[in-house]
Amino acid sequence: MSMQKEYEMLRQVSRTFAISIEYLPTILRDTITLGYLLFRVSDCIEDHAELPVAEKVQLLRLWAQILDGERPVAALHERLARLDDNDAEVYVAQHADMVLVKLVMLPPILQQIIREGTKATALGMARWQAHGPYVETEAALDDYMFEVAGRVGHLLTKVFAWYIPNLYDRHAELNTLACEFGLALQTINIIRGMRKDYERGWVFVPQAFYEDVGLTRDSFFDPANIDPAMQVVERLAIKAEQHLRNGLAYILAIPRRYHHIRLACMWPLLFAAKTLAVSRNNPAVLLDETKITRSDVRGIIINTKLFGWSNHWLRCYYRRLKSSS
């Protein structure tokens, strides 16, 4: 089947993940492209500034019903028609019917994996939207991150185990590591984007973390409180690093002969490790968003293509990236 339109949509919503997904073998590339786009429908609903919270909860639950085959996708399109489709995520959400049409062309087991994973995440997001724009504890943060990222790791593991038969017997172990992988990427997203989240009304830094250093939700972002706030950032960085180590173990568990699959997993993890390095001890994370450079991205891609076959090299390269600045 032709997936050109879907690949274009993927590149518009995430150039970074497109790099990884488009490097996969064809059936995995098609499957994960469609799955990623369906997840971005949920993201659009969760993040869009023009949608009131109560409507977001309704729309996410509606989207879950559509994925379950209980409601027509036109019901969602009608509710989202007023949004500006110049936003790439909105465009994907308003064309979810195209993605679902392509989904039914996949083998039934892959359709089921994508539908169940996307539905579960949509319902998890709905629960968190109803909960409100804060997390009280680290456990609450982990719960949120599982819904938006850990479940993605589980979905990918199921798809990879379908493609790589000898992974199936290690499914339980890999599922745990996959969840940690997802939590690693999401924790680093929270660190680098905490200011923007705050400006849109959400604070994913656990309340317990900033209260431990005498700060409040608002004073945490006050430039006058940089020193205690950076103690909280370091606490989050340590947490991210713990998750990253398990993400690395996930990649190392994939047989080396599946080099393209390993690379597709390496790149998000190593981009995240470098992002953690430039965010750590960097007060800019409290004032703006931190990012790695295009040169960093190119360097990681080139080096891993050449040397990523070696598990020893990968371990050393990971340690070097996370310690750089």
- N-to-C SSE string, H for helix and E for strand: HHHHHHHHHHHHHHHH
User: What is the CATH superfamily classification of the largest domain?
Assistant: Farnesyl Diphosphate Synthase
- As a percent range, the share of helical residues equals over 70%
The CATH topology of the largest domain is what?
A: Farnesyl Diphosphate Synthase
Total strand segments: 0
* Spatial shape: globular
Strand content: under 5%
Overall radius of gyration? 19 Å
Q: For this structure, what is the CATH class of the largest domain?
A: Mainly Alpha
Spans with pLDDT under 50 lasting ≥5 residues?
none
Structure notes:
The chain has 325 residues and is mainly alpha-helical. The chain has two domains: 1-119, no CATH class; 133-325, Farnesyl Diphosphate Synthase (Orthogonal Bundle), CATH 1.10.600. It is 74% helix and 0% strand. It has 16 helices and no strands. The model has no long low-confidence stretch (mean pLDDT 95).
Could you outline the blueprint of secondary structure elements for this entry?
Elements: H1 4-13, H2 15-21, H3 26-47, H4 53-67, H5 74-80, H6 88-94, H7 96-103, H8 108-131, H9 138-163, H10 171-199, H11 207-211, H12 226-253, H13 259-279, H14 284-287, H15 294-307, H16 311-323
Please sum up the structure shown.
The protein is an all-alpha fold. The protein contains 16 helices and no strands.
Which structural traits does this protein have?
mainly alpha; Farnesyl Diphosphate Synthase; single chain; 0% strand; 2 domains; 74% helix; 325 residues
